[in-house]
């Protein structure tokens, strides 16, 4: 699994002009599922992301996690994170998981985050979405369960 994690002051997602998910202070997670990913990848990603110390403490040092601040999470499925742009001009998506297993792992990620006590909002899987992200900092991180970077 691969994620772009952004610390946000607010974030929302809409489909066909209708807001489907909206959060206040927390994280927006753009999540891509790779062919061969499984439950261990989902668990790793949730634990890693929820515990990243990227929120400021009283000394203005990034020392607090989403769990520490009781922040919210907006999770958006995004298979394009698995796009391979090394050859040619059109990204290849052969590394991205097929829709059914990708959706299962996406839903598993969401449920595991909720089990940690995080208020989670989502987009709509395999749908054109408009995501409004008020990146705070800006703070943007890449996380990969296969530790490719």
Describe the protein.
- The chain has helices spanning 39-51, 66-69, 99-115; strands spanning 2-15, 18-23, 26-32, 55-56, 62-64, 72-77, 119-122, 130-144.
- The relative contact order is 0.30.
- With 149 residues, the protein is an alpha/beta fold.
- Strand 4 (55-56) and strand 5 form a beta hairpin.
- It has a single domain (2-144), classed as D-tyrosyl-tRNA(Tyr) deacylase (D-tyrosyl-trna(Tyr) Deacylase, Chain: A).
- The mean pLDDT is 97.
Summarize the structure.
With 149 residues, the protein is an alpha/beta fold.
List keywords for this structure.
3 helices, D-tyrosyl-trna(Tyr) Deacylase, Chain: A, 38% strand, alpha/beta, 149 residues, two-stranded antiparallel sheet
At the fourth level of CATH, the homologous superfamily is: D-tyrosyl-tRNA(Tyr) deacylase
> What oligomeric state do the depicted chains represent?
single chain
CATH architecture: 3-Layer(bba) Sandwich
Q: Give the helices and strands as they follow along the chain.
A: EEEHEEHEHEE
Count of all domains: 1
Q: How many strand elements?
A: 8
- Strand proportion, as a percent range, falls in 35-45%
Q: What portion of residues is helical?
A: 10-25%
| Global structural class | alpha/beta
**Largest pleated sheet:** 6 strands, mixed
Shape: globular
Could you please say which CATH topology applies here? D-tyrosyl-trna(Tyr) Deacylase, Chain: A
Low-confidence stretches: none
How many angstroms separate the termini? 12 Å
CATH class value: Alpha Beta
Tally of alpha and pi helices = 3
Topology at a glance:
Elements: E1 2-15, E2 18-23, E3 26-32, H1 39-51, E4 55-56, E5 62-64, H2 66-69, E6 72-77, H3 99-115, E7 119-122, E8 130-144
Parallel strand pairs: 3-6, 6-7
Antiparallel strand pairs: 1-2, 1-3, 1-8, 4-5
Helix pairs in contact: 1-3
């Amino acid at each position: 699994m691969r994620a772009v994690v952004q610390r946000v002051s607010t974030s929302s997602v809409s489909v066909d002009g209708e807001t489907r998910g909206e959060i206040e202070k927390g994280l927006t997670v753009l999540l891509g599922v790779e062919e061969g990913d499984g439950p261990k990848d989902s668990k790793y990603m949730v634990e890693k992301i929820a515990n990243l110390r990227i929120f400021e403490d009283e000394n203005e040092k990034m020392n607090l996690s989403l769990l520490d601040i009781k922040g919210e999470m907006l999770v958006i499925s995004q298979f394009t994170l698995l796009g391979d742009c090394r050859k040619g001009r059109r990204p290849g998506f052969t590394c991205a998981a097929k829709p059914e297993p990708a959706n299962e792992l996406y839903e598993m990620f969401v449920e595991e985050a909720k089990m940690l006590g995080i208020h989670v909002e989502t987009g709509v899987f395999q749908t054109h979405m408009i995501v409004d992200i008020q990146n705070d900092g800006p703070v943007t991180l890449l996380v990969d369960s296969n530790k490719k970077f």
